[in-house]
Amino acid sequence: MNFTWKQLESSSSHQGDEAENGNPGGHIILAHGFGAHAGDLAPLAQNARGNARWLFPQAPVTLQPGSYAWFPSTARDMQRVFDGEYFHQLEDMSIPELGDRADQLVEDVEELGIPWENTILGGFSQGSMLALRAALEHRLPLKGLILLSSAAVDRSRLSHLLDQEYRVPVFISHGNADPVLPFPGGTRLKELLESGEWDVQFREFAGGHGIPPEVETDMVGFIGDLLR
């Protein structure tokens, strides 16, 4: 395995045949954001409906104990992160580590024996960028994508990949006062995916870089609609 993984089960009183047979009704894979860890998004599984297996990969770049990142990995780029400029330039940046991590994520999921056809893939912040890149580069036959406070990293590359006959239902949320990944970048990502005729559910919220309760509620509904 390339990454460390945290796994949780969610269930409700309406689990269906899959629960009776001891099998998950679906898989939800969510990747954390910069400076977090594999358990950071695990609370999202607690309020989910249905019978599903939730999986949370942990990024390989250690910032400090309990704090990890998917990218960047060089000292120079990391300094740009802490200077505040790096994440505002993502649309024009080609990030080799992101492609490498996407490949590694796909390898891990397939090693775990998880079927893509019954999986929703996503993440928060740079974890969502990882999910989108993996989906597009590998044309994963997903149930859906969840992109929480995301951005169109290497926009020209994404535009090229969207020229292909590949579409996935996607849930996007973004705070209109986000200081880390400004809101206009979220709307540009939405418009980019819509240009590829993707079915996009976009949730703007009043706030910054996070996942407020109203977004969690809408995300749980999105998951429930896809996995029921």
From TrEMBL:
Domain (Phospholipase/carboxylesterase/thioesterase): residue spans on this chain: 27-223
Key words of the record: Hydrolase
Family matches, as Gene3D superfamilies: alpha/beta hydrolase (3.40.50.1820)
Region of interest (Disordered), ranges: 1-27
Any Pfam family hit: Abhydrolase_2
Molecular function, one GO term: hydrolase activity
Biased composition (Polar residues): 1-14
InterPro entries, per the entry: AB_hydrolase_fold, LYPA1-2/EST-like, PLipase/COase/thioEstase
Family classification: Belongs to the AB hydrolase superfamily. AB hydrolase 2 family.
Protein name: Phospholipase/carboxylesterase/thioesterase domain-containing protein
Record organism: Salinispira pacifica
